[in-house]
């Protein structure tokens, strides 16, 4: 899909909230071995960069340092049926939220990697409803060193933010309400809720 300008919400706080809520991204880069992709937990530094880590054996791990890469955070999505519109001369489409982040990547030293792992676990442990949150200090030091030796940490300085919040902004308020109701009924309540909250 090629979104038009109506679907671009340039709200950095909203972008940061999406990164924090989803906490996961797909990283793409062109390497000497060809195009490669990795799926990574993602942590925003809050100052225009994001951090992630890869297994040392990942095809991207040995190439990323110093490269320009693309990270994509996908939010909720849902199929939009033409039957939900008053005008029958419509075609199917898809409402979705996606944030593309492009930037230069640098490798993190061990202390930066450890801080990243602590940040990711702290954020996500806070979401687990039952029990006492797990913390890094529960790992025996030797076991932690061994685990950290198996991964490589990176930080991407974001040079371009390309958000798409395709929420039927090109339709009337009545049409959007019908689409949101349809999406919710068909099992896509998250995208329906964003339509109601983010589109006036």
TrEMBL record:
InterPro entries reported in the protein's UniProt record: Split_barrel_FMN-bd (IPR012349), TR_PAI2-type (IPR007396)
SUPFAM superfamilies assigned to the protein according to its UniProt record, in alphabetical order: FMN-binding split barrel
Gene3D superfamilies from the UniProt entry: Electron Transport, Fmn-binding Protein, Chain A
Protein name as it appears in the record: Transcriptional regulator
């Amino acid at each position: 899909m090629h979104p038009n300008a109506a679907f671009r919400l340039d709200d950095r706080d909203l972008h940061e909230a999406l990164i924090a809520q989803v906490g996961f991204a797909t990283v793409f880069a062109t390497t000497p071995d060809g195009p490669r992709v990795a799926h990574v937990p993602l942590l925003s530094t809050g100052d225009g960069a994001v951090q992630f880590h890869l297994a040392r054996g990942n095809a991207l791990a040995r190439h990323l340092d110093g490269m320009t890469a693309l990270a994509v955070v996908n939010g909720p999505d849902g199929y939009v049926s033409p039957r939900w519109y008053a005008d029958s001369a419509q075609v199917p489409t898809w409402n979705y939220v996606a944030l593309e982040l492009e930037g230069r990547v640098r490798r993190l030293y061990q202390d930066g990697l450890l801080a990243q792992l602590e940040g990711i676990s702290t954020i996500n442990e806070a979401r687990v409803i039952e029990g006492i949150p797990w913390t890094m200090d529960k790992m025996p030091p030797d076991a932690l060193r061994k685990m950290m030796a198996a991964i490589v940490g990176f930080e991407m300085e974001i040079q371009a933010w390309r958000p798409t919040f395709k929420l039927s902004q090109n339709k009337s308020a009545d049409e959007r309400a019908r689409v949101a109701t349809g999406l919710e009924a068909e099992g896509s309540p998250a995208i329906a809720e964003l339509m109601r909250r983010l589109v006036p």
